Every structure is written in structure tokens, then in C-alpha cells.
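Figure S4 source data
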Amino acid sequence: MSRAVAFTIDLFVIALLFSLGGHVVEYVLSVLLREPVRLSETSWASRIALVVWAFVYCAYPLAASGHTLGMAIVGVRAVRADGRDLNGRHAIVRVLAFPLSFLLFGIGFLLILLRRDRRALHDVI
């Protein structure tokens, strides 16, 4: 349950900061170019930027401290299978593997309930 709460907090923070950052970038570009700039009109670029932002938001703090903001709030920490801290490579692989846990209606998360060590598919990978 705490992992779901952490994930929800992280989703909220990712969306909030992305939205605020987008408005700041639009404003700065509008001032510099002296014409209105609407990043939302380029949906493909916005989607790519959101994916990149979400990746950085998750991977960097996991590598640096073992948790995202949401995980820190609920007291969850990601570590390697042997209990050591995540390094940059392990954090990147974990973040890239995370969407796999959603495939097939979230079966990757079902492993949390089935495994004694409470690891989801992206944790195992």
C-alpha cells in the first residue's frame, strides 16, 4: 500500500513540476521571441519532454539516495537485491523496467503479493 501511495505522490509531483516548468519555458520563449509560444500545440514534443522529465525525476534521486520524493514521504527505499544502495546503472534499469510491471493489467505488481521479498517485476529485473 505504501508503494502505491508513493507512486501516486510521484505522479502528482511529476505532473505539477512539468506543468509549471512548461509555463515558465513558454513565458521565457514568448519574451525572447516576442510572440506567443504554446508548447501544448506540439503534442509530440510535449509527450517526449514529459517522458524524459519523468525518467530524470525517478532515476536521478533513486541513484543519489535510493528514493524519489514520494518514496521518501512514505518511508520506502529502493535497494539492490543484496541490500546495497542502488548505483546509477541499477537506478536507470529499474526506471526503464518499471512500465513492464503495468503490462498485462498490472501482473508485474501482483508479484509484490506473491513473493516473500515483496518485489515487483521491475524490482526483480
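Figure S5 source data
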Amino acid sequence: MITIRINIRQLGKKRNTINAVPFVLPKKPNTVRDLITSVVMVCVAAYNERVRKGETVIRPMTQESLSDMEMIGKLAFGVNYGGKEANEAKAVTTALQGFKDGLYRAFLDETELVDLDAPLMIRENDTITFIRLTMLTGSIW
């Protein structure tokens, strides 16, 4: 078991910050592929646990949460309307494909991780940053 920190960006007018959140992985990853796989598996397990517990209730929205969603251009209620658990294998495959396709980038502290199968020297409390790259569409006029 190893604890790393994953940078999570918090959007908002008053709190547009990046916070390093502790994240426990079941074992030390040896490659970038192992790292992505482990992170996805932990996230899917947590999501599926919330689904099993029935945590699908709608929480009241505040003006601050509406402003935050407006900034990112997405209004979401955080509800799983289907009540279905995520498929772990599919989630891992999708995450690895997204990395290969350049939809997001990963950094270990200040170093970009570029090769899925390159050896990874990660230590307790190292910081991982995932940056999702969004594609903008539209015309220039």
C-alpha cells in the first residue's frame, strides 16, 4: 500500500485553487500503466460503493455551486439516474486509451509521464497531476 497525493482543481470565483488530496493505492505502481490502472480501480470502487449505498439523492444547489458549474460550462446534479455500477475493466481500458490518444496528461511532481510502460519511481507522498485537455470547436467568426 502506498499513499500519493493527486492534485484536484477546485473551480470557483472565490476558490479557483489546486489542492493535493491524499490517495491510497493498494500497491506501489511500477509503470505509468500501473499507476493509471490503480487510480481508476480505486475511483471505480469508491463510485460503485456509493451506488450500492444508494447515495443518489439530489443535494440542494447553492449559488456558489451554480457559479462554479457555470464557469466550467456544465450543469450537473451529481446523480446516477440509472443506478448502475461502473465496469472496472472498461473504465481502465478507456483511461489507458485516453492517455494514448493525448486526451489528458500525467505528471509525477514536475515531470511529465509520457510512456505507459516506462519504469515509474514513485515514493510515498509524491504528487500526481492529471490534466484533461479539452478540445474547443467552433468557427473564428
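Residues 32-53 form the longest helix (22 residues). DSSP finds three helices and five strands in the chain.
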